[in-house]
Specification:
The chain is of the alpha/beta class and about 260 residues long. It is about 45% helix and about 15% strand.
């Protein structure tokens, strides 16, 4: 079976730099995949990507060694299984708030006897290889999102679930749940303390910690704290930022237009 580059990187003690795909287009996904990201996550929870667009985006990512990850809309067995059948090598599941949620997530993404995943890896066989069924349980990566006060209260119970490989912090939702401003990087002190606590407990349990960031500087700072999976921005935000930089430079370099004069 094709190796999962995330697992290989983590086993060497490295940190993965993850890109985020919000644009439902295979060409933009292919372009992003050729820029050197360790992994790319297709976001089905927020934004405008649907399942069929996701499939074409996974095909585009497959033109590179970038690891394909998908954030599903919710903890729902059907979409979890179909996402894996389409060839995702990692799944990020939102709003995992209890040990029972984490157990359900692991079960839905694992074949028997370990779990309850239904068999039908149609495209996953093409991407992963003919022996995908024998190795999928130990190859794909399962991220549980920790983004609520309830998840914080149940953190050690969640992290102790067998088969859970990683957690992923959504700083904005976590901040909102704690009564703070929703933001990625410059979070309020209460949210910052919670983020530090989560990564410390994840390390204690041997679970990889991941987090969303707005800038490379924030991502590098969080790697220094022990995070091994950092997302920076998104394809849509990067396009907007690049276009804004071009236009700001052009506006600053262009002479102002002549003033209109009255004519009679």
């Amino acid at each position: 079976m094709r190796e999962n580059g995330l697992r290989a990187l983590w086993q060497r003690g490295g940190a993965a730099v993850n890109g985020w795909l919000a644009i439902p287009n295979s060409f933009s996904a292919e372009t992003m995949a050729h820029q050197g990201w360790d992994s790319l996550t297709i976001d089905l929870q927020h934004g405008v990507v649907d399942y069929q667009a996701m499939v074409t985006m996974l095909q585009a990512i497959s033109t590179t060694a970038t690891v394909p990850v998908v954030r599903v809309p919710w903890l729902e067995p059907g979409i979890l299984m179909k996402t894996l059948d389409a060839g995702a090598y990692g799944v990020i599941c939102p709003m995992v708030n209890t040990r029972e949620d984490a157990q359900k997530f692991v079960a839905c993404t694992s074949y028997a006897p370990r779990g309850t995943r239904s068999f039908g890896p149609v495209r996953a066989l093409l991407y992963g290889g003919a022996d995908y069924p024998q190795h999928a349980n130990d190859t794909i990566v399962r991220f549980a999102m920790i983004e609520t006060a309830q998840a914080l209260d149940n953190l050690d119970d969640i992290l102790s679930v067998e088969g859970l490989d990683a957690i992923y912090i959504g700083p904005s939702d976590l901040s909102l749940s704690l009564g703070c401003r929703p933001t990625f990087d410059d979070v309020d002190p209460k949210a910052a303390q919670a983020i530090d606590h989560i990564v410390e407990r994840a390390k204690a349990h041997g679970v990889v910690a991941g987090i969303h960031n707005g800038t490379p500087e924030a991502a590098l700072g969080r790697i220094a704290k022990g995070f091994q999976f950092v997302t920076i921005s998104s394809d849509a935000r990067l396009i907007a930022a690049g276009a804004q930089a071009v236009m700001a430079r052009m506006r600053s370099g262009l002479a102002p237009p002549p003033k209109a004069t009255d004519s009679y």
